[in-house]
Here is the input.
Amino acid sequence: MSFDIALSGIQAINEQLGTISNNIANAGTYGFKSSRANFASLHAGEQPTGVHIGSTTQSIGLNGGIQATNRGLDALINGRGFFVTKDLTGQTNYTRVGIFTKDASDFLTNSAGHRVQGFALTPPSMVAGPMGDIKVPTNQLSAKASENIDFVANMSADWTVPTVPFTPADASTTPPTVPDPASYNMSKVTVVHDSLGREHTVTQYFARDPDPANPLLVNVYVAVDGTDLAGGVSYQLQFDANGKLDEANNPAGADTPYIASLDLSVPPATTPQTIKLDYSGTTFQKGESTTSTNAADGYSAGSYVGVELDQQGNVVAKYSNGEKQAIARLTLATFPNEDALMPVNETSWQANVQSGTPNFSEPGAGVAGALTVASLETSNVDITAELVSLMTAQRNYQANSKVITAENQMLQSLMQAL
Here is the structure.
């Protein structure tokens, strides 16, 4: 009996050594989670019969370290979530390793070649659609006509009334007519695009109104490609005593937003073009005149140049015209019992009855965790602890071997005595 008990101990320790060896071997594997072999006793009725490995515990809930890679398609999960992938057979796998790339078929895949799952986005909308394979659009990005200009600035209350009347700009004359700098207080240029992707300049000239009865009124003169649109004042900004836009006394209509409508249709643009120029947030206060926002939408045509991830987990396609478009958002999965997931190759797991049904969510939602881009999670193996366990297993192995040796010697002595 003691021989069988000692033999069961050696067999269990061999299994434990396999677990320890696997942990040590994967100490440098990204996203690897260490395991621990748990011993359990064996009994036949009330008679002890030895030991075996009753279970193996995974330390999935213990995150590894952070290693910066400076690669735009690497990502680390700061939480309990798993990236979701599908292999060529359609089997869903879950992994903590965020090493992604675009394959020859333009699908986003992980380091094992499995297709990464994500929620579809339809630019410019950021509302997540159905979950599925992520395919990166590598075709030409068509030009988009500008529709909006966001302009936020401080029109300095220190401005003095211009000394000369404003002269409208006219690029058609020879030489072109240019407004006298003494006729305005500030000018700003915004680049916009027509439906063919051609660039045009929208120049705004700001001048304090000369009427002393209204010292809080600023006139705006707008020129497109060097030619004045209105031949005079295009828009007016009325401010209140606090230096904020006065919507109650808006010259364009009481209680209406300060949004100018500019007709920029320039032949041979294919469609009529109207641009909304939004001044929301603009102020009229003492100090230097500054511009915090001066941006137009729209862009020229561009070619695909690459793909990257952002901190929100969006897959962003990049184009030669400088545009970036979020085309999908990575899916993260969490489980009721993540420790019960079944480990498979390539540092992945598969769900089972014990792990429970996966809950799919976007990065940053709930316990799934936010992403850190250009970083990877290292193995959570503690080499020091594993080496200590290795030495302990070695002593236990030797002790069980001595039991077998002692029993063998006792049997030999018994046989000799007979």
